[in-house]
Amino acid sequence: MAKILISMPDKFLESIDKIATDEQRTRSELIREALRNYLKTNHLVNQKRALKNAEILDGLLD
Q1: Which helix (H) or strand (E) holds 28?
Q2: The predicted structure's pLDDT at residue 5
Q3: Rounded Cα–Cα distance for residues 29 and 32 (Å)
Q4: CA neighbours within 13 Å on the CB side: how many for 24?
């Protein structure tokens, strides 16, 4: 598994650590899940946007 280095404000990291502790998870597990959820949501939003754009284009071509 690759490791990365990211920077974030101390207060933000404190919030992440508190949630991880409350959920008895590691910081890494919590951040991986958050990024998985972001990727899934972003993918769905892009699919909806593409369908809407296709409908607009179809309407213009009719």
Answers
A1: helix 27-61
A2: 94
A3: 5
A4: 0
The type of residue at 17 is D
Q: Which residue is associated with the tokens 């959920």?
A: 23
The 10s digit of each residue's pLDDT in 1-59 is 899 999 999 999 999 999 999 999 999 999 999 999 988 888 877 788 877 878 887 78
Query: Where would I find the beta strands (DSSP E) of 1-62?
Result: none
To the nearest 10°, the Cα dihedral for 42, 24, 2, 39? 0
Tell me the two tokens of residue 49. 């946007």
CB neighbour list of residue 8: distance below 8 Å, 6 or more residues apart: 16
